[in-house]
Amino acid sequence: MAASKVLTGARVVLPTGTVAAGRVIVDGTRIAGSAPETAETVDLSGQWLVPGFVDIHNHGGGGASFTSGTVEDVLTGVRTHRLHGTTTIVASTVTGEMDFLAQRAGLLSELAEQGDIAGIHFEGPFISPCRKGAHSEGLLRHPDPADVRKLVDAARGHAKMVTLATELPGGIDSVRLLAEHGVIAAIGHTDATYEQTVEAIDAGATVATHLYNAMPGLGHRAPGPIAALLEDERVTVELINDGTHLHPAALELAFHRAGADRVAFITDAMDAAGFGDGRYMLGPLEVEVRDSVARLVEGGSIAGSTLTQDRAFKRSVTVDRLSVEDTVRALSANPAKLLGMYDTVGSLEPGKYADLVVLDAEFDVKGVMRRGEWVVAPNEGHPVVL
């Protein structure tokens, strides 16, 4: 069991606000309300202490894919993102044959049962060929509820989210099916109209998959899905804040319209996250990463990102000028609430897992703790390469 620790001196971001020179007590795997006499004191003066990041949309990292790799490959990706502060991660798949995706769901569900991942997100194959992005068009299919149910069942209770183009045949019925089974129905890779999107939300869809990307733009006569997703209080919008997927004004618009409690920052990371430029495979499609931007070799579409959540945090507060508190909501609290895990992760409160990130004054990672154990130990010369 992890030794007891008292983390002192940092600016601690709590649900109620930031406490200057605060302290967080870690006892075993959890945050505690009081410290035993034998607790080790760790001085974090001049730094920030924030909850571990929760990423609900991530395809891999460290050179490894969640869609096609072995168990050890998946764990490599998980560990890579932990080094960058993501202590809770949902493994996302990309479009593939149904039998293959069901098989992957079985493998990933074992890792969910072990606590290595928080669940599975199926992005595809139930998406629009008009907005396919980096998905193989030949493998796309309509969201028939029987097919959707097949993937949910294969995940053995660990399916957390399914991205759908809800305007396609079977889309609305599939949304209802997912809602009945406690799985998030996410609207994305869609060519839906405003009215079709409203219908899907009323049926139970609650997430916008990487808002703005892979959907019609906001129009003044045909507002499309973006307006419907931003205006509805029942919807949480995913945003990829890497400086490539979104113009800063688009991010500001989403925060202004949806509010800080309805935004979840995601990475949508692929294999190259935390690894480097080069050629990779995203499902059956070849991707080239150049200057940290991933694009399909054929056609040039953006193919996920190489983002890690620490970079999203730093960009949010230094470039977008969001408050640290709102950034923590988007990176930790909001996605934890979406997953139904806010009782154990997403904030620094007694009783929750001791998942936390230490950031210096420039918002670079200096320490990462998961369940009471240091993944990156502060003050010990363990740099995180961004």
UniProtKB/TrEMBL annotation:
Its protein name is N-acetylglucosamine-6-phosphate deacetylase
Which top-level group of life is the source organism from? Bacteria
Instruction: Cite the PANTHER family for this sequence.
Output: N-ACETYLGLUCOSAMINE-6-PHOSPHATE DEACETYLASE
For this UniProt record, the keywords arranged alphabetically read as follows: Carbohydrate metabolism, Hydrolase, Metal-binding
Task: Tell me where in this chain the Amidohydrolase-related domain is found.
Answer: 49-375
Instruction: State the family it belongs to.
Output: Belongs to the metallo-dependent hydrolases superfamily. NagA family.
State the InterPro entries in the record: Amidohydro-rel, GlcNAc_6-P_deAcase, Metal-dep_hydrolase_composite, Metal_Hydrolase
